[in-house]
Design a protein that fits this description.
Length: 164
C-alpha cells in the first residue's frame, strides 16, 4: 500500500510518500511544492494543483492523508491556505485516491505517542520510524511524512477519517 501524506499550504506544501511493508514503512519520496508570494494567487493555486498531479502520476499512491487546517489569527493567510488545501484535495480526488484527514493532535499521538509533542520530537520519530540517516528537511516535508505515517497507523479505523 502506497500513501501520500500532505501538509497543506500556499507558500509551501509538504509531502511524503511511503509504502507499507509488512509491519514497517519504506520511504518512496518526500519534499515540498513551493510557490513564491510574488506569483498571482490563482497562478499559485494552479501551480500547486499541477505539481500535485505530477506527484500522483509519478508515484501512484492508493490513498492520501492530509492535515486538517488549524486556523491562526491571520484570517487572510487562513483563507489562502484553505484554498490551497482545496486544490490539493481536488488533485487527489480527481486521480481517484481515497482521502483521509487528521488533526495535528492525532498526528502527534500517532507518531510520538503524545498529543502535545514538540516539532523536534515529531521529526526525530519520523527519522527513526522510517530508518533515515537524518531528519527530513525542510520541516514541511517531515510533516508530510508524519501525516503518511499517521494514516498508515490508522488504516484499521480508516473510515473514521475519510473525507466524504
Amino acid at each position: 500500500m502506497r500513501i501520500i501524506g500532505i501538509d497543506p499550504g500556499i507558500a509551501i506544501v509538504g509531502y511524503g510518500i511511503i509504502d507499507i511493508v509488512g509491519n514497517g514503512f519504506s520511504v518512496v519520496d518526500y519534499g515540498i511544492i513551493e510557490t513564491p508570494s510574488t506569483m498571482d494567487e490563482l497562478e499559485r493555486l494552479k501551480s500547486i494543483y499541477d505539481s500535485m498531479n505530477i506527484l500522483i502520476d509519478r508515484y501512484n499512491p492508493q490513498e492520501a492523508a492530509i492535515e486538517e487546517l488549524f486556523f491562526n489569527k491571520n484570517i487572510k493567510t487562513a483563507i489562502q491556505v484553505a484554498q490551497a488545501r482545496g486544490v490539493e484535495l481536488l488533485a487527489c480526488m480527481n486521480r481517484g485516491l481515497e482521502v483521509y484527514e487528521y488533526t495535528p493532535l492525532q498526528i502527534k499521538q500517532a507518531v510520538v505517542g503524545y498529543g502535545r509533542a514538540e516539532k523536534k520530537q515529531i521529526q526525530e520519530m519520523v527519522k527513526m520510524l522510517l530508518n533515515l540517516k537524518s531528519i527530513p528537511k525542510p520541516d514541511d516535508a517531515a510533516d508530510g511524512l508524519a501525516i503518511a505515517i499517521t494514516h498508515a497507523h490508522s488504516r484499521k479505523h480508516k473510515e473514521m477519517f475519510r473525507v466524504k
